[in-house]
From TrEMBL, chain A:
Species the sequence originates in: Oryza glaberrima (African rice)
Record-linked PANTHER family: TRAFFICKING PROTEIN PARTICLE COMPLEX SUBUNIT 2 (PTHR12403)
One biological process term in Gene Ontology: endoplasmic reticulum to Golgi vesicle-mediated transport
Name of the protein: Trafficking protein particle complex subunit
GO cellular component, one term: cytoplasm
TrEMBL record, chain B:
One Pfam family linked to the record: Foie-gras_1
InterPro entries the UniProt entry points to: TPC11, TPR-like_helical_dom_sf
Organism: Oryza sativa subsp. japonica
UniProt name for this protein: Os02g0714500 protein
Stretches assigned to the Trafficking protein particle complex subunit domain: 256-525
Length: 135, 703
């Protein structure tokens, strides 16, 4: 189980549409800024790397202190970004794949505007459950 | 890296010495320098100067027990072996000095004996050089044999230089340099083997000597250009060094850490240099990461944590400079599959800018720790006072105190309290903020040239925070504005919140009321994720002046703005930051299509009918929406058209309008004007035909 992790979904317009502090560490609001700061800066690498490879899962694209950024890029160029400490790649990949399925269900909702914020509490609950399961 | 001594920054070159015949030294020195690898020459004009090569006598009592070493690495050992202790010495004679009259021969023999006695105790190799004017001048076999026996050298180590024959001179000079190169290799190999034998036999009494021996073997290997061997022993030395943190008791705890880190810094610098100059970029980065991981938690006590962060920052700075100066080419296959499977390297780790921005971040940690140390130690400063005459010791990473008593000068060890006071006073002399800004700027320019706008923006934000900390609010505001633009464009609300918090305080300090109100309203209206709960007060210094983006924070900000606008703040405190004169005038904010304040207020006007007919009523709807967290009470709402005759006013019903009723135009309407968060308020206003006809039908009125 991770001591610290932050998960952000970034739309193809580089706008974050979902954000969650996941992990077993006690929730610390002041860490959220630092975590998002790292993820935002990591978008530069993802931008180049996403076109250089044909895999959706980009592991360890960036690091800061002990924190590593892993990214999952969907076909529509939405990016799932996870900030974590060192851990199993398989768990992270499975987490991304299952969140992707949840995201597709949100996307299929005709009332959901693509690129807008995901405000579904059901989605939020599911994502946090997956984080506890895989991360 | 420029702070490191020259002998550490450059690979060691073989050192040879020549004694006698000074007029020929420049030519020989040029020949040695042009070899690959080059050799350094220690030129001594005559034999009376040869005593400089002598070994300083160590009075060792054989009966005394082996004394514990006072340090790990002697500071001058490397410099000594590069400038004063040659691998080979050449005694240089002219032919007539050895084949002339017996007095000259005896003088030459005496000089040679003196030279041999000087290098006694060292493994320095001896060469004899004879200088002939012409190739035809044949030296007798007896003379050369006698000279060789006197010097106790091999026949090939007696070199004859022919001075006035160009071809012969070049050939003999090449032979001389070749002999020198062979002897140097032999010397450094023998010395390395001798010290290595002590390591293998565990023939040392302390762990300090073990590390010192590893360093010596590695340096001797570097002299021979045996990079794998040098690397192996540097790595072994740094491994043993890491272990002695928890075991050594020679120094007090704080000074022990300082010494260990200083030595580790030297070892790692050597490792990085060898790997990078050998083209092994991935290995160098992997080693750097290991180095950082070994020491990042060895902070020491809180009073001296600033020393750790200063050291830590320098590791990143020096490594970034090494990567930059070795002009390494990033491997073509840009895959995050470098390094081990568990610790893949990222693309940024090949860029010097990555290390510069981290160096800046850790130097900021030093500033935080220094502020903490200064506040805690200042309470006891009067008691301790500052130790006088503190200076670096002859050992790497150690400090001592000079003590003068009459003609005697003694060197005394420092206590940890004394050392802490000294280190604190030294650190307080420097202005870290501007060093941090320089590092961030360096990284910023590099990232921008790479097209990494977000990393460049992160560095720009780092610069701005340091300007803010140093009290330069104008520069800080300019940089924060640029960073806020990117966060607005990309919708990263959490980062924008932090940025606006700084901008608000800059506007306050710069007494810019309009900017302060704009930034405050934007903060209050920022859409934040629902996960934001009640923030705690831990690690307050990590956050900017905005604090956590909670609902209560935004409500406080909105209330502050309203208080300023209503003038309550000014009446309560006449020393308010804002100019009182500004309070007299109304504050005017423009909110247009591109204004960042569009998220604060939205206004929409709609006509109910497609056309306007004379003598018919017209309906106009005005809709307002506020995203501020608290309800907004509006006193008066004016709707203005291009034709000012069409303007109308809506007055709040909550206001006491009895006094102003007599002045209100017939068209004025009273209605509640309270905006609730995120809810549209629609106001429908009817323009009555009588009033409207009266305005436009001037002639009719006259009738």
């Amino acid at each position: 189980m991770a001591s610290t992790a932050c998960f952000v979904i970034v739309s193809k317009n580089d706008i974050p549409i979902y954000e969650a502090e996941v992990g077993s560490a006690p929730k610390r609001e002041d860490q959220a800024y630092q975590h998002q700061f790292i993820l935002h800066a990591a978008l530069d690498v993802v931008q180049d790397l996403a076109w250089a490879t044909n895999t959706m899962f980009l592991k360890s694209v960036d690091r800061f202190d002990d924190l590593v950024v892993s990214v999952y890029v969907t076909a529509g160029h939405t990016r799932f970004m996870l900030l974590h400490d060192s851990r199993s790649e398989d768990g992270i990949k499975s987490f991304f794949q299952e969140v992707h399925e949840l995201y597709i269900k949100i996307f299929l909702n005709p009332l959901y505007l693509p690129g807008s914020r995901i405000t579904s509490s059901h989605f939020d609950t599911k994502v946090r459950a997956l984080a506890r399961k895989y991360l | 890296m420029e702070d490191y001594p020259e002998e550490l920054r450059t690979p060691p070159l073989s050192l040879v010495s020549i004694v006698g015949c000074p007029e020929l030294h420049p030519a020989i020195s040029a020949a040695l320098s042009s070899r690959q690898p080059p050799m350094n020459l220690l030129a001594l004009p005559d034999f009376s100067k040869a005593s400089i090569l002598a070994r300083t006598a160590k009075a060792r009592d054989p009966l005394a027990p082996p004394q514990a070493p006072a340090g790990i690495l002697k500071k001058d050992w490397l410099l000594k072996h590069r400038t004063r202790v040659p691998a080979a010495v050449a005694a240089m004679f002219r032919a007539d000095q050895v084949s002339g009259d017996p007095a000259q021969w005896l003088q030459a023999c005496s000089d040679l004996e003196n030279l041999k006695s000087v290098i006694q105790g060292r493994n320095t190799k001896l060469v004899v050089i004879l200088v002939q004017s012409q190739a035809g001048d044949e030296l007798s076999e007896d003379v050369t044999v006698a000279l060789r026996k006197r010097a106790e050298i091999d026949s090939k180590h007696l070199v004859v230089l022919v001075e006035r024959d160009e071809m012969e001179w070049t050939k003999s000079l090449n032979k001389l340099t070749t002999v020198f190169a062979e002897l140097c290799t032999t010397y450094y190999k023998d010395e390395g083997r001798r010290v290595k034998a002590r390591i293998e036999k565990r023939n040392f009494s302390s762990v300090e000597l073990s590390i010192r021996y590893c360093f010596k073997v590695a340096v001797y290997a570097e002299f021979r250009r045996d990079w794998p061997e040098a690397l192996k022993f540097y790595e072994e030395g740094i491994r043993v060094l890491r272990e002695m943190i928890g075991t050594s008791t020679r120094l007090p705890p704080t000074q022990r850490l300082v010494e260990v880190k200083a030595v580790a810094e030297q070892f790692h610098f050597k490792i990085s240099t060898i790997l990078l100059h050998g083209g092994k970029v991935v290995g160098a980065i992997t080693w750097f990461r290991k180095h950082i991981r070994s020491y990042e938690r060895v902070v020491g006590s809180p009073e001296v944590a600033f020393l750790h962060w200063e050291w830590f920052s320098r590791q990143f700075l020096v490594f970034g400079e090494l990567i930059e100066t070795t002009s390494t080419t990033v491997p073509d296959t840009l895959s995050p599959r470098f390094g081990t499977a568990d610790n893949a390297l990222t693309e940024w780790e090949f860029q010097p800018a990555y290390y510069y921005q981290l160096a800046a971040n850790y130097l900021r940690e030093k500033r935080y720790a220094l502020e903490f140390s200064s506040s805690s130690v200042s309470l006891t400063k009067g008691v301790n006072g500052l130790p006088e005459s503190v200076m670096p010791s002859v050992y790497v990473g150690q400090y001592v105190r000079l003590f003068e008593q009459g003609d005697t000068v003694a060197v005394l060890p420092l206590s940890d309290t004394e050392y802490t006071s000294y280190a604190l006073s030294e650190a307080e002399r420097f202005q870290d903020s501007y060093e941090i800004i320089a590092l961030f700027r360096k990284a910023y320019e590099s990232f921008r040239s790479l097209g990494a706008t977000r990393m460049a923006s992160a560095c720009s934000g780092g610069m701005a925070i340091e300007y803010y900390a140093a009290g330069d609010f104008s520069n800080a505001k300019q940089l924060f504005d640029g960073v806020a633009g990117l966060y607005r464009q990309e919708g990263w609300a959490t980062l924008l919140w932090e940025n606006l918090g700084y901008l608000r305080e800059c506007a306050r300090k710069l007494k810019s009321l309009k900017d302060f109100i704009s930034y405050s309203l934007e903060m209050a209206a920022l859409p934040l994720f629902s996960g934001s709960g009640q923030g705690n007060s831990e690690n307050k210094r990590k956050n900017g002046p905005a604090g956590s983006p909670t609902i209560s924070s935004r409500e406080l900000i909105q209330q502050e703005v309203i208080n300023i606008l209503e003038g309550k703040h000014a009446s309560e405190n006449t020393d308010d930051e804002f100019d009182l004169h500004l309070m007299e005038e109304s504050t005017h904010l423009d909110i247009d299509q591109i204004s960042p304040l569009r998220i604060v207020f939205l206004a929409s006007v709609a006509f109910h009918d497609q056309s306007v007919k004379p003598d018919s009523p017209m309906l106009v709807s005005v809709s307002l929406q506020s995203h501020l967290p608290c309800p907004v009470m509006i006193d008066k709402l004016e709707v203005q058209f291009n034709q000012s005759d069409c303007n109308f006013v809506i007055v709040s019903a909550q206001e006491d309008c009895s006094a102003s009723n007599s002045h209100v135009h017939d068209g004025a309407v009273q209605t509640p004007l309270t905006l609730f968060t995120d809810k549209w308020m629609r106001l429908t206003h009817e323009v009555k035909p009588e009033w409207k006809a009266g305005m436009f039908g001037g002639e009719g009125n006259n009738k």
